[in-house]
Recover the amino acids of this structure.
């Protein structure tokens, strides 16, 4: 789950002016992709130039391409974003349908908006899609951030001690095509209980991260 986090300078009055839009990928026009690409470059750039690199030009995705997006807009343009892609994970020999959540970012001046705001819009969409779970991954350094904004509100469960295997979105001669990461797994129970999440310490995406 790609997350860009920057210092917050926003307040409740500013956050209340954000309008949320649920958009399927086929609905987005070229100008909207260009606007989102610029938003991602500015959001991910402070975390390192490499993280902003995938969004050069009009490319508004980093690895796998989302099929559904929640986009927040305000008077200045794109304020926040989270993407969704349905896929099958392999966990301990079990194939499991999930809605992977990723491409999460908030404009630097609105970081206090928090992931919980965008998830309030995304969660009904997860229910409508009929998926058993929402799924994402985050860096261990963001555990406190996610615990405060997600787990304490009962939206999700954080899991540690799990390795996730995925493919690089592009093939580089100097790199293995497979990437293995020790990350925090974020699971959003939707159609099934968290007790039904398969046991296993290795999760295979068999594709690039969203």
């Amino acid at each position: 789950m790609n997350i860009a986090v920057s210092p917050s300078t926003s307040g409740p009055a500013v956050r209340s002016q954000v309008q949320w839009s649920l958009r399927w990928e086929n609905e987005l026009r070229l100008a909207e992709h260009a606007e989102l690409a610029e938003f991602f470059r500015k959001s991910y750039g402070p975390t390192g130039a490499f993280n902003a690199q995938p969004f050069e030009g009009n490319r508004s995705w980093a690895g796998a391409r989302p099929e559904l997006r929640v986009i927040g807009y305000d008077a200045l343009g794109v304020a926040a974003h989270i993407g969704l892609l349905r896929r099958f994970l392999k966990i301990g020999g079990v194939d499991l349908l999930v809605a992977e959540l990723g491409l999460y970012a908030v404009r630097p001046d609105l970081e206090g908006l928090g992931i919980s705001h965008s998830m309030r819009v995304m969660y009904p969409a997860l229910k409508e899609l009929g998926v058993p779970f929402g799924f994402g991954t985050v860096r261990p350094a963001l555990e406190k951030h996610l615990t405060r904004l997600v787990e304490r509100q009962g939206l999700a469960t954080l899991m540690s001690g799990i390795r996730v295997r995925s493919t690089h979105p592009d093939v580089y001669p100097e790199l293995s095509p497979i990437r293995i990461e020790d990350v925090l797994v974020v699971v959003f129970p939707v159609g099934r209980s968290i007790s039904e999440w398969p046991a296993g310490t290795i999760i295979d995406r068999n594709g690039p991260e969203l």
